[in-house]
Structures are given as structure tokens and as C-alpha cells.
């Protein structure tokens, strides 16, 4: 790879599709039958990420805490001094697991999809609320740092304020939120409408102002048009090549919600990342041909058309606009997603 080829700052690694739950909104259920990298391949990948200067690895799934290769991978990441986080439902987290996570300085993003048992279990299944609370308590006893993550959908969007208040009571650093993506198990009936998504964010914003807490919204840059930046930050660097998604089999994906693999780490990460950034798809993502309402929008430089994965799912184009943009006027919930999934 030549020195001029981009290197991502961060890697989001779907280490396995295996999970201990069957949540109705799960996008990663697509990876359940994917043959994951062997342990030696995982460790070699970490070596190569370190050599290339990747500074952050976010491990997700599936449920990473049930993966038998997790501890040696965490040790290798820690030995290189790479910042590491895990997305987890904490359903099986115990004191021993918490001790391991603490030993390797792992930051946790804990899935919390409602402020009460009824809402959370409607999405994640019976018994998950009590196990969630036990897991969070184990995290707190171990002194681990964590944030909560709520996946906004049509079943829980009205509970957004309660979710923020719960995150603060649990001792989270902040309350993260992300819209459901209409892939995997997530069908038309659970994907929020644009109005429902905006309602959730405004309810969350009101709660954040009231209690002085911080919200971090993922994968929704058009949200900058409607939120108060004093209480809510919005993260998405996908169009700038700063973050790359890797699936359980080692494929570098255009996005973890799109089944578009651009290369594979089994050929070596250096070669794979070169192929990734040289692909036609990444060129289109990083250099979108913006159309209205994006072309004349005040946040076009930072937004770049919003989520290109949602744009591709709906329009078969990476150029935007994000279907959830409040200026796009798209009836995403009742019509467009249903059509996309039928196709």
C-alpha cells in the first residue's frame, strides 16, 4: 500500500453474529450464519490494524461477551495501546467478565431500549430487563465506564425522555441514541417514521436540558437541523473514510447495514484497505453528487447528504438525501421502507 492511501482512524468490528438474544430490531442477525475468522486470523488482524496506526477498535456483534475468542483479542488490543469498546446487552455479564473488561480498559456501550421493563422487553424479550439491571450493577461494582445505547424505533420513541433519565440514574457517561436501520429482523412495522424519530430526539433533548445530561446521537447528521448542540452531539464520520466496518468473516463492508463487501482482511489488512478506498463505491460515498434539498442546505459540508446506507436502501444511490432528513419530506415508515424490503 502506498503512503498516499488513507488509513481509517477507527474500525467497527462485528466479531461474530452469534447472540444470546433474538431482538426484533436486530440488524446483525444477517451475520448469524457467517463463518467468522479463526482466532489466529483475528489476532493477525489486530496486529495489522496496529501496524497501520488504527487508534480505535469498536467490537460489536452479535453479543461479543459470549465469544470464546474475546479475551485473547482484548489482551492483544490492550498490549498495543489501542482504545477499545464493546457493544453489549450485558445479559451474561458477571463479576469475572467485568474483571476481564476492567483489566483491558474496555469501554462499554450497553443496550437499553426503554426506561422500564414493559418497553425494553417488548423489543428484547421476556426476562431481559432484570438481567440488564444485574449486568449494569456488575459493571458499576467493577468501576467500569459505560454509556447506554437506545435504538429508536416505532415501539419506544415516546419513551425517549424516560430513557435519558434512566441513563443518568444508572451512572452512564451519556445516553446514546441511533435510529433503527431497516435490515435484518427490523421490518417496516418497527422502523420509525421521520416524525417519530424527531419526536424521540426532542423528548430526549427536553429531558437532557432538565437534568443537565448529555446525549450522543449516532448515524443521523441531518439531526443537526433540529437539535440543541448544548445538550446533544451527533456523530457520523462514515463519508470521510475515518471509520471502516469489518464483518465476522473479515470482509470490509461499505456499511455494516449493507451487504456490500469491498475487500477482505484475509488477504492482509494493508491490501484490503487499499482495495476498499480504491473502489468505485467508496469514491461515490466520499464524493457525493448532492441534489436538493442537500445541495443548498446550510449543513451540507458536514452532512454530505446524510446516511448513504439509508439513501442506498431507499433510492439505490449513495448521493442522498438521507430519507430521515426533516427537509426530505419522505414518508419513510408507511411507504418507502415497505417498498425497499419488497425489492
Structural class based on helices, strands and sheet pairing? alpha/beta
List how many beta strands DSSP finds: 11
- Looking at the structure, the CATH topology is TIM Barrel
Succession of helices and strands? EHEHEHEHHEHEHEEEEEHHHHH
Please report the first level of CATH classification, the CATH class: Alpha Beta
Number of helices: 12
Characterization of this structure:
This protein is of the alpha/beta class. It has a single domain (10-287), classed as TIM Barrel (Alpha-Beta Barrel), CATH 3.20.20. 36% of the residues lie in helices and 17% in strands. It has helices at residues 39-52, 70-79, 95-103, 117-124, 128-141, 160-170, 194-211, 269-278, 280-286, 300-303, 308-315, 332-342; strands at residues 10-14, 56-60, 83-88, 106-111, 146-152, 175-179, 215-218, 232-235, 243-246, 251-255, 258-264. Helix 1 (39-52) packs parallel to helix 2. 46% of the residues are buried.
Helix-strand layout with pairing:
Elements: E1 10-14, H1 39-52, E2 56-60, H2 70-79, E3 83-88, H3 95-103, E4 106-111, H4 117-124, H5 128-141, E5 146-152, H6 160-170, E6 175-179, H7 194-211, E7 215-218, E8 232-235, E9 243-246, E10 251-255, E11 258-264, H8 269-278, H9 280-286, H10 300-303, H11 308-315, H12 332-342
Parallel strand pairs: 1-2, 1-9, 2-3, 3-4, 4-5, 5-6, 6-7, 7-8
Antiparallel strand pairs: 9-10, 10-11
Task: Give descriptors for this structure.
343 residues; alpha/beta; TIM Barrel; 11-stranded mixed β-sheet; 12 helices; disordered C terminus
